[in-house]
Write a structure and sequence with these properties.
It is a single chain. The protein has 120 residues and is mainly beta. The protein contains no helices and 11 strands. The N and C termini lie far apart (40 Å).
């Protein structure tokens, strides 16, 4: 069983930066894929970025490429999302998720989410 707790959200002006953290309790095995998703008001949840726990390979949504960076820290069992050049469209609740066997769309564990608000 894995539990995920996000932190680091807040209010920031357009062009600013934030770093989100996702602390995991429980064992994160090498087969895991860790990801970040977001949901804006009135919109469906969308994928933002993912990272393979074993080799650190990453994948990003086109809308955040070049602005966001996902990373992991083995020792702290934590995944980060560094967000730069933020835009008002980046506003939403950001949630961390874990996919135990890196199977497409099999995100089995979710955090409670953290609010990110980007003002224009």
């Amino acid at each position: 069983q894995v539990q995920l707790v996000e932190s680091g959200g807040g209010l920031v002006q357009a062009g600013g930066s934030l770093r989100l953290s996702c602390a995991a309790t429980g064992r994160i095995h090498s087969t895991y894929l860790m990801g970040w998703f977001r949901q804006a008001p009135g919109k469906e949840r969308e994928f933002v970025a993912s990272i393979a726990w074993n080799d650190g390979s990453t994948y990003y949504a086109d809308s955040v490429k070049g602005r966001f960076t996902i990373s992991r820290d083995y020792a702290k069992n934590t995944v980060y999302l560094q967000m730069s050049s933020l835009k008002p469209d980046d506003t939403g609740v950001y949630s961390c998720a874990a996919n135990p066997f890196s199977i497409s769309d099999r995100w089995e564990y979710w955090g409670q989410g953290t609010q990110v608000t980007v003002s224009s």
